[in-house]
Amino acid sequence: MAFPEVLQVTTDGLAEWLADVDRPRPLLVDVRTAAEFAVSRLPGAVHLEPDGDPSPLLGEIENDRPIVLYCSVGYRSAAMAERVAASHGGEVWNLEGSIFAWANEGRPLERDAEPVREVHPYDRVWGRLLHRELRAPWRPAKAKRGDAA
């Protein structure tokens, strides 16, 4: 595992967490490019570029609020979770399987506060991890060289 110190939450675990009115709602952070985020996201998620500075985002939330980060499959979000955990007083989690697993399981997605089913496939190789009917038409996400989904 590339990020052994990062806490992991499964898609089932996150769905249960979001449905539990007695548990503090986590801040959902989408760690994909703007092009990917524009196609769809988990409901209520905020955007943070994969190479972005999390400081402004962290400055706007309570220090003890839990944070769940996700990307396409979990690598970029795990890397960012490691960075965020170093400066955030609350729990910081990475969503295992990220948005690809979430979408493949038929869980809710949105774009402009409207339900959608499509997900940006990241690229032609990684996009194969998405069920075919969920793949938005592929357009480069302008990821930097060497980025992993």
Number of separate domains: 1
- Describe the strand arrangement of the main beta sheet, using strand numbers: 1-5-4-2-3
What is the total tally of β strands? Answer: 7
**What count of helical segments does DSSP give?**
5
Unreliable sequence segments: none
**Beta-strand content estimate:** 15-25%
Query: What structural class do you assign from the helix and strand content?
Result: alpha/beta
CATH architecture: 3-Layer(aba) Sandwich
Order of helices and strands: EHEHEHEHEHEE
From the structure provided, what is the oligomeric state, counting identical versus distinct chains?
A: single chain
Give the CA-based shape: globular
**End-to-end distance, in Å?**
15 Å
Main beta sheet: 5 strands, parallel
Q: CATH class, anyone?
A: Alpha Beta
Report on the structure:
- By secondary structure, the protein is of the alpha/beta class.
- The chain has one domain (7-134): Rhodanese-like domain (Oxidized Rhodanese, domain 1), CATH 3.40.250.10.
- It contains 5 helices and 7 strands.
- The strands form 2 sheets. It has a 5-stranded parallel beta sheet with strand order 1-5-4-2-3. Strands 6-7 form a two-stranded antiparallel sheet.
- Helix 4 (75-85) links the parallel strand 4 (67-70) and strand 5 (92-95).
- The longest helix is centred in the middle third of the chain and has 11 residues, at 75-85.
- The chain is globular, with a radius of gyration of 14 Å.
- The mean pLDDT is 91.
